[in-house]
Design brief:
The chain is α/β, with parallel strands linked by helices. Helices cover about 40% and strands about 20% of the residues. β5 and β6 form a beta hairpin. It is globular. The termini are far apart.
Length: about 325
């Protein structure tokens, strides 16, 4: 009898240990770290890439970096390669597009686009011997968010709907990259459910009751759905964003125009809390990495619920 009790006790301890280890592994596997986020931003916003202007070696190196990351996460190219090529005048430009097919036989035919522009404005007027507009907040920060999402979903492979992870070029030239891709996908009759764009998520608000705002707040019920999925007031309304029509000034807008579906930008910066927009001081050391990591780790499971909802819960107003 003592032997049986001992065996049961040992078994219970082993099962308990295994469960704890599994939970630990799960947490480590699916949670982005501050170090990861900072490493991505530090590369993209480094002086070596010289501001990632369209047609430069810096933007080409950034594209290769994004492609390498996507491949390492198990995210495949959507087209023949990761690159969606287009022209900006005489310059060669390219969006980078990764694809994770949905797991549900029917829902996989519906798509969610998760995007951010990875270009910036290159070299500008010199300030204190510095002419490189590094674009850490604008928008290496958002690009790090897209890559974090790609890693999250690439590891889990639990998305019923199909996902496109996109980094856009030529946003700074007038949303040219997103217009090109939205048109191409529309012509291919892609069934787009929603588009979530990440823009300038590297700094926090000090006086708001939300982590981030969404542009075009009143155009759909996205904020309500996101907050319900998050179980908290995660996103809110920005008067400044509405005043300056920021809904039309980032890559979400091209998808809204082409598909007429909910397409919004998530941002934590409406320029009331950041002094270095298009400035040489938009540097790596200006960002709040613990905040950015928290935002990404809140957003990832929210998008996961979007990807797995049995019906399309996000709708235009």
């Amino acid at each position: 009898m003592k032997k049986i009790i001992l065996l049961v006790s040992v078994f219970t301890v082993l099962v308990s240990c295994k469960t704890k280890v599994s939970e630990s592994l799960k947490t480590e596997e699916y949670t982005v770290t501050t170090q990861e986020v900072k490493a991505i931003v530090s590369y993209l916003a480094s002086d070596d890439l010289k501001g990632r202007d369209v047609g430069s070696q810096g933007i080409a190196d950034a594209a290769t970096f994004v492609e390498t990351k996507l491949k390492s996460y198990g995210v495949k190219p959507y087209f023949e390669t990761y690159r969606d090529d287009f022209k900006v005048g005489d310059l060669d430009a390219f969006n980078v597009v990764g694809y994770l097919e949905g797991t549900d036989a029917d829902l996989k035919n519906e798509f969610i686009v998760i995007g951010a522009h990875y270009d910036h404005i290159g070299q500008i007027t010199t300030v204190e011997n510095d002419s490189i507009a590094n674009g850490a907040n604008d928008n290496a920060a958002g690009t790090s968010g897209v890559l974090a999402m790609a890693k999250y979903f690439g590891a889990k492979k639990s998305n019923k709907r199909s996902l496109l992870f996109v980094t856009f070029s030529a946003e700074e030239k007038g949303l040219i990259g997103s217009k090109h891709l939205a048109k191409r996908l529309k012509e291919a009759d892609l069934n787009l459910y929603t588009m979530i764009n990440l823009e300038m998520i590297g700094v926090s608000f000090k006086d708001r009751d939300y982590q981030a705002f969404i542009t075009g707040y009143d155009k759909s019920n996205l904020a309500e759905v996101m907050n319900t999925y998050a179980g908290e007031k995660f996103v809110g309304f920005s008067d400044v964003a509405a005043k300056y029509s920021l809904f039309k000034r980032s890559d979400n807008y091209a998808f809204y125009e082409a598909f007429n579906v909910p397409s919004h930008t998530v941002s934590s910066c409406d320029l009331t809390n950041f002094d270095f927009y298009h400035h040489v001081n938009d540097e790596v050391d200006q960002l709040d990495y613990p905040f950015m990591t928290s935002l990404i780790n809140t957003l990832a499971p929210v998008i996961e619920k979007m990807a797995n909802a049995e019906t399309q819960e996000i709708k235009l107003n």
